[in-house]
Amino acid sequence: MKKISVRTKVLTGTVAAAALAAATLGAVSASAEATDTPSAAAAVKADTQNKNLAQTTGLTIAAATKAAQATLDAATKAGQKVSVAVVDRDGVTRVLLKGDGAGPQSPESAVRKAFTAVSWNAPTSELAKRLAQAPNLKDIPGTLFLAGGAPVQSKGAPVAGIGVAGAPSGDLDEQFAQAGVEALGK
């Protein structure tokens, strides 16, 4: 009998392992390809009827932009330099416009006013009055209880918020925010 060298054994073992790995990978790939399409279709079909899903109503980016521009236009017409923010129902900023000459603090303030208005479905001037009864409200992260925010509603439910900052008074900021809300009805 001929004795097989260690080198031949290692080389033979390596080739056998590589062949086994290639065969396994091919089988797994073929299996994945065969099951991806049917399961993906089944998952989509199942999700359309899933009672655990919630649907929400929100502004399109075009509507949010229209509201923001109408708000900025109202402020510019009144000679005010402001920033305008439109946030969705979850408080995520959809549009942020910093008007020419608006202060550096105004973009963040506008976002926080919009967030506050949509969170409580009320103008921020009204919410600022509530601080007397519940001063801890001001401690909620991301909120700003100053006039200048207005909720956008659909059937009485909040779907967005518009915040304005930079005018010399919160009442003016809120008046401009309301102009943006009204622009959505046109």
Overview of the structural elements:
With 186 residues, this protein is an alpha+beta fold. Helix content is 52%, strand content 15%. It is built from five helices and four strands, in the order ααββααββα. It has helices at 6-48, 61-77, 106-120, 124-130, 170-183, and strands at residues 83-88, 93-98, 149-154, 157-165. Strands 2-1-4-3 form a four-stranded antiparallel sheet. α2 packs across α5. The model is unreliable at 27-36 (pLDDT under 50).
Can you count the beta strands? 4
Strand content: 5-15%
Give the spatial strand order of the biggest sheet.
2-1-4-3
H/E topology pattern? HHEEHHEEH
Low-confidence stretches: 27-36
Biggest sheet character: 4 strands, antiparallel
Distance linking N and C termini = 97 Å
Helix count from the secondary structure assignment: 5
Overall pLDDT metric? 85
Structural class: alpha+beta
Helix content: 40-55%
Radius of gyration: 29 Å
Shape: elongated
Provide the descriptors you would attach to this structure in a database record:
186 residues; alpha+beta; four-stranded antiparallel β-sheet; 4 strands
Secondary structure layout:
Elements: H1 6-48, H2 61-77, E1 83-88, E2 93-98, H3 106-120, H4 124-130, E3 149-154, E4 157-165, H5 170-183
Antiparallel strand pairs: 1-2, 1-4, 3-4
Summarize this structure briefly:
The chain has helices spanning 6-48, 61-77, 106-120, 124-130, 170-183; strands at 83-88, 93-98, 149-154, 157-165. The chain is an alpha+beta fold. A hairpin with a 2-residue loop joins strand 3 (149-154) and strand 4 (157-165).
